[in-house]
Design goal:
This protein has 7 helices and 10 strands. With 241 residues, the chain is of the alpha+beta class. It has a single domain, classed as Oxidoreductase, molybdopterin-binding domain (Sulfite Oxidase, Chain A, domain 2, Alpha-Beta Complex). The longest helix has 20 residues. The structure holds the ligand Nc1nc2c(c(=O)[nH]1)N[C@H]1C(S)=C(S)[C@@H](COP(=O)(O)O)O[C@H]1N2 and molybdenum atom. The site of the ligand Nc1nc2c(c(=O)[nH]1)N[C@H]1C(S)=C(S)[C@@H](COP(=O)(O)O)O[C@H]1N2 has 18 residues, from loops. The site of molybdenum atom has 6 residues, from loops. InterPro entries: OxRdtase_Mopterin-bd_dom, OxRdtase_Mopterin-bd_sf, TAT_signal. Pfam families: Oxidored_molyb (PF00174). This is Oxidoreductase.
Length: 241
């Protein structure tokens, strides 16, 4: 009886935290999905995040104001890819989340799309002198980070893409409520040239920070010598908007 009481108490605290922090993981916790692996994953969600992450989420930057549906510029987003568009089998695709985490993840697109979806209309800004107002739909990156249960020493996220592109971000920007892993663009499934099955989208970073075809996210305490494809060619690392 005592055990049950304590367990429910923890669950409640977790629920309250999720509510206050704007994490909506509880909704899919109640929704369920069926596969045993997915239930394992969801079970882990009842563990609290460590204090450092809770503080970063509570104190995260103010949301950037968004545009309205009528302001979307459907033709303005120019495909900008340093190599050819990679070929990815969406059925076999897995997003790997590893590094200094207690719960490494390997998620299919079906599992990612079962997580709470959000959308935003923001301006994408490329340093090459163009911009586009786009609607992105997907999962908040911080929900995926929370599922992976990062250790307190994590400072950065390192992103690998299927075309050989790579990027790294500071943790506060990773946990920003408008930093998404997007699988929709302007209300439609994300086109492959724009990064399907999964890409970064955020109103707080320049275009080159927004990796397309993300296959792996490593949560790390130090930055490797290769910080980002364009950064290693002289562009600024933080690249905030
Ligand atoms: N994997 C990968 N991601 C990438 C790039 C790339 O070449 N490869 N280019 C970046 C740049 S410079 C920009 S402006 C945006 C362009 O996104 P879009 O092609 O969907 O318009 O993707 C960014 N992400
Ligand atoms: Mo760009």
């Amino acid at each position: 009886m005592d055990f049950i009481h304590v367990h429910q108490h923890n669950k409640l605290q977790r629920r309250q935290f999720i509510k206050v922090a704007g994490l909506s993981g509880i909704s899919f916790l109640l929704g369920g999905c069926g596969t045993p692996a997915f239930e394992d994953l969801v079970g882990k969600l009842s563990e609290p995040l460590n204090q450092k992450f809770e503080n970063l989420i509570f104190n995260s930057q103010k949301p950037v104001s968004e545009f309205s549906l009528s302001e979307i510029e459907p033709k303005a987003l120019i495909v900008n890819t340093f190599r050819d568009t990679p070929i990815i089998d969406t059925e076999k695709y897995r997003l790997i989340v590893d590094g200094e985490v207690n719960n490494p993840l390997s998620l299919s697109m079906a599992e990612i799309q079962a997580l709470p979806q959000t959308s935003m209309i923001i301006r994408h800004v490329c340093v090459e002198g163009w911009a586009a107002i786009v609607q992105w739909g997907g999962i908040r990156l911080r929900e995926i980070v929370a599922l992976a249960q990062p250790k307190a020493n994590v400072q950065y996220a390192y992103f690998k893409s299927a075309d050989g592109y790579y990027e790294s971000w500071d943790l506060a920007s990773v946990l920003h409520p408008q930093t998404l892993l997007a699988y929709q663009k302007n209300g439609q499934p994300l086109p492959v040239d724009n990064g399907a099955p999964l890409r970064l989208a955020s109103p707080i970073k320049l275009g080159y920070k927004q990796s397309k075809w993300v296959t792996k996210i490593s949560l790390v305490s130090y930055l490797p010598p290769f910080k980002g494809y364009w950064e290693d060619r002289g562009y600024e690392w933080f690249a905030g908007l």
